[in-house]
């Protein structure tokens, strides 16, 4: 199969050409015609069919037409107006109805946008859309008749002027604000051009596509050109500058993704403004054309935007002349044209190098290790590396600050410690009554044990402590010897590493101890109480029976211990009674 | 007539480093204050003026002066109404460059373009290498105005631009009249000449009040 097919593909070049001999390549899907000839052949066929059919079948033809529109999306837009104009004699009536003829996602989107932005009388909208579809169908018809694109462009330009005078002269538009009118004219252009974009952008009647490829290849060959060659001051290694160059390149590449001429022009303006920003960050003072043009050339060379030439030609042809030649957009667009023209005609001289060097670079014999290439394109990792480096730098800076802060904190703590020490020392010096503190401490101890024992009532240990402390402070206040209390509390600081921690430990230790000491009598109490309630549990009877001798001994001891506090003593005496009862 | 805006495009041509950009910046200065100078985009400047009740919109296009960009000139000065060709009075070679520019402009745009030849850097009078008389005779020979300026000292720049605007307005009227004469009325031209003189006188006073 392959061996059979390949030769035919290779040898019979003529077979690939359009049957009509128009010089374009054909496609099997188009019955051996090129796209243009296929389209016209289809139309002819349909016209024949139509003329043979009686008029009453119009309903069916419409249906048929719809069907075809679905299958042959590309052709649907031209067919409708052309067919209507030629097939039916009611041209004027048909053209009136053409506003509905543009059915194109782009047109639909723009219609919605128009209706959202402008709230205008119904009559104005009607007229606006009528004019749009008129120009649109005109362009499409002309393009279909293989008219040179320049003629079509001239037609469009004339129509812009025509509509502009209508906007400013017609009574229908008299009530509209002049600014809105200017916007409408712009929108008019945008609408028509976006809708007819497929026909007028890079049309098959021109060699725009070839030009695109030529310039693209040329730029690719010139990839070794760097800022130094162009004698412009862009510093390729600077991070900030590179980011800006990225923005400029993105703007320039965006040129191909928008449809309306003014949108494309806006892309050019944005790109050029980024270039100005680049230059501002690279040099002092205002940016002059002497620096601007080389920088723009550099950006164009590095961006190598798709279909550059087609886009430029499209803007030149279909952007409203009055706007293109004036103001900042016009200036920037001219600069872009200049940059492209410079690239096209670039010689060794224009890069101020000898021709031998130039040819060797162009042929790729000698490679230049351009900083730009290595940093931006050839090595994306480099870019990431620099990003990471900056990140690391940021991190090290942060850790340094943390370290210094920590050191600061340590110093502060040290100073606080010293301060406290010195204060303590002064206090001790001022108050030589060192004999009293031990007395107070002795006083405190029974107070602490005393409420701890009260826990039998079922209160929590923490409550105890707060209560205890309150009691203490109150008592100290009453005695008005606050300083002495301080001495007692600060004592652990001198021994420990951190004052707060030791204080906490001190508290916890005490509480634990108290809890433990509290638990033992509690347990005993509980058991006794339970036994009381159960009155006569048989299971529990044997253990008390066995250690009767111990119990009696213990009871004697227990009797002696609770004799110190009065409250617990009573209870303990009760337990003693209980145990004796159990024993009995 | 009074409400129409006169849109003029003026290109700045000349060898690199003769002070094209400085001239634009000086001219822009009465609109922008000194502190904001660095924010001005010097390569393109749009200036709205009111001269004798006429609204003039002046778009000044700076061009790259380097030799390698010389070939791009036609793209820049296409459909421009005026051209300011700058030379450096201390650099004889820059005047040679002026001559080549003038030749090119006349060839491409004919007499539609109003030319001003400007000798810049008069503050460096002691280093003068260009004969003033020679330059002036050359300018009159090619139908261009000649001015001497100093961007550094802000001398003669405002005046230079105003005379250029006058010349462009005059040229515009001449073109309009030419169209009228073609249609048949021959008397218009004389009136125009008188008009011009009036305009010139009024312009100066008007601008004085403006600035």
From TrEMBL, chain A:
SMART domains assigned to the protein according to its UniProt record, in alphabetical order: VPS9 (SM00167), ZnF_A20 (SM00259)
One Pfam family from the record: zf-A20
Keyword flag Lipid metabolism: no
Region ranges (Disordered): 46-74, 565-584
Compositionally biased residues, Basic and acidic residues: 62-74
Coiled-coil ranges per UniProt: 392-426
Matching Gene3D superfamilies: 1.10.246.120, 1.20.5.4770, VPS9 domain
Top-rank taxon: Eukaryota
Keywords: Coiled coil, Metal-binding, Zinc, Zinc-finger
SUPFAM superfamilies per record: Glucocorticoid receptor-like (DNA-binding domain), VPS9 domain
Span of domain A20-type: 12-46
InterPro entries: DUF5601, VPS9, Vps9-like, VPS9_dom_sf, Znf_A20
Identification of the protein by name: Rab5 GDP/GTP exchange factor
Organism annotation: Nicrophorus vespilloides
Gene that produces this protein: LOC108564587
Automatic annotation (TrEMBL), chain B:
Subcellular location: Endomembrane system
Entries under Gene3D superfamilies matching the protein: P-loop containing nucleotide triphosphate hydrolases
InterPro entries named among the record's database cross-references: P-loop_NTPase, Rab21, Small_GTP-bd, Small_GTPase
Entries under CDD domains matching the protein: Rab21 (cd04123)
Lineage: superkingdom: Eukaryota
Membrane topology: Lipid-anchor
Pfam families assigned: Ras
Main location: membrane
UniProt keyword annotations, A-Z: GTP-binding, Lipoprotein, Membrane, Nucleotide-binding, Prenylation, Protein transport, Transport
Cell wall biogenesis/degradation among keywords: no
Family membership: Belongs to the small GTPase superfamily. Rab family.
Name by which UniProt lists this protein: Ras-related protein Rab-21
Source organism of this protein record: Nicrophorus vespilloides
């Amino acid at each position: 199969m392959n061996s059979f097919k390949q030769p035919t593909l290779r040898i019979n070049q003529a077979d690939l050409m359009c049957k009509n001999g128009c010089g374009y390549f054909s496609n099997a899907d188009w019955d051996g015609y090129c796209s243009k000839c296929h389209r016209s052949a289809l139309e002819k066929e349909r016209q024949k069919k139509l003329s043979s059919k009686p008029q009453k079948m119009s309903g069916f033809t419409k249906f048929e037409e719809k069907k075809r529109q679905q299958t042959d999306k590309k052709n649907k837009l031209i067919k409708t107006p052309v067919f209507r104009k030629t097939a039916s004699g009611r041209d004027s009536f048909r053209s009136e109805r053409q506003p509905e003829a543009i059915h194109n996602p782009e047109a639909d989107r723009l219609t919605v946008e128009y209706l959202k932005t402008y709230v205008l009388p119904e009559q104005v909208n009607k007229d606006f859309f009528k004019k749009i579809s008129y120009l649109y169908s005109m362009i499409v018809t002309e393009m279909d008749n293989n008219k040179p694109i320049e003629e079509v462009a001239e037609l469009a330009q004339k129509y812009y002027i025509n509509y502009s005078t209508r906007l400013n002269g017609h009574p229908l538009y008299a009530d509209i604000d002049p600014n809105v009118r200017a916007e409408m004219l712009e929108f008019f252009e945008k609408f028509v051009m976006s809708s007819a974009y497929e026909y007028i952008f890079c049309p098959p009647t021109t060699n725009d596509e070839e030009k695109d490829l030529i310039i693209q290849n040329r730029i690719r060959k010139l990839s070794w050109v760097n800022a130094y060659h162009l004698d412009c001051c862009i510093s390729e290694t600077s991070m900030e500058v590179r980011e800006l160059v990225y923005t400029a390149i993105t703007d320039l590449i965006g040129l191909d993704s928008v449809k309306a001429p003014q949108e494309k022009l806006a892309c050019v303006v944005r790109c050029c403004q980024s270039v100005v920003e680049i230059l501002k960050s690279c040099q002092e003072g205002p940016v002059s054309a002497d620096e601007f043009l080389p920088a723009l050339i550099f950006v164009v060379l590095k961006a190598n935007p798709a279909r550059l030439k087609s886009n430029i030609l499209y803007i030149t042809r279909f952007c409203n002349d009055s706007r293109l030649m004036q103001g900042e957009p016009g200036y920037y667009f001219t600069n872009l044209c200049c940059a492209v023209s410079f690239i096209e005609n670039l010689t060794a001289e224009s890069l101020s190098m000898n021709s031998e060097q130039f040819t060797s670079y162009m042929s790729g014999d000698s490679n230049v290790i351009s900083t730009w290439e290595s940093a931006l394109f050839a090595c994306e990792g480099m870019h990431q590396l620099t990003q990471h480096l900056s990140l690391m730098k940021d991190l090290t800076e942060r850790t340094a600050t943390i370290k210094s802060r920590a050191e600061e904190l340590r110093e502060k703590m040290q100073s606080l410690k010293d301060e406290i020490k010195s204060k303590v020392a002064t206090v001790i010096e001022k108050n030589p009554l060192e004999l009293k503190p031990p007395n107070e401490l002795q006083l405190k101890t029974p107070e602490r044990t005393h409420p701890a024992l009260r826990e039998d009532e079922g209160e929590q240990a923490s409550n105890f402590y707060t209560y205890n402390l309150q009691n203490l402070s109150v008592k100290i206040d009453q005695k008005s010897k606050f300083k002495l209390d301080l001495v007692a509390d600060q004592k652990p600081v001198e021994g420990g590493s951190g004052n707060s921690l030791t204080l906490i430990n001190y508290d916890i230790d005490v509480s634990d101890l108290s809890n433990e000491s509290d638990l033992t009598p509690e347990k005993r109490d509980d058991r006794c109480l339970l036994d009381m309630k159960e009155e006569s549990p048989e299971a529990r009877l044997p253990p008390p029976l066995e250690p009767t001798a111990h119990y009696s001994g213990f009871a004697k001891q227990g009797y002696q211990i609770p004799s110190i506090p009065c409250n617990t003593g009573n209870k303990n005496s009760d337990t003693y009674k209980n145990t004796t009862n159990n024993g009995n | 007539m009074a409400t129409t805006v006169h849109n003029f495009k003026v290109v700045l041509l000349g060898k690199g480093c003769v002070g094209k950009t400085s001239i634009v910046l000086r001219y822009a200065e009465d609109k922008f204050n000194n502190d904001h100078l660095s924010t001005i985009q010097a390569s393109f400047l749009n200036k709205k003026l009111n001269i004798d009740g006429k609204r003039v919109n002046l778009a000044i296009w700076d061009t790259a002066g380097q030799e390698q960009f010389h070939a791009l000139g036609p793209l820049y000065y296409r459909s421009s109404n005026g051209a300011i060709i700058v030379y450096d009075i201390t650099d004889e070679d820059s005047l040679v460059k002026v001559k080549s520019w003038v030749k090119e402009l006349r060839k491409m745009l004919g007499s539609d373009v109003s030319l001003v030849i400007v000798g810049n850097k008069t503050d460096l009078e002691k280093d003068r290498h260009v004969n003033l008389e020679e330059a002036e005779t050359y300018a009159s020979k090619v139908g261009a105005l000649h001015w001497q300026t100093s961007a550094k000292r802000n001398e003669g720049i405002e005046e230079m631009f105003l005379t250029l605007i006058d010349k462009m307005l005059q040229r515009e009227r001449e073109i309009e009249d030419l169209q009228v004469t073609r249609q048949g009325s021959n008397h218009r031209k004389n009136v125009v000449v008188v008009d011009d003189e009036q305009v010139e006188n009024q312009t100066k006073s008007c601008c004085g009040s403006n600035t």
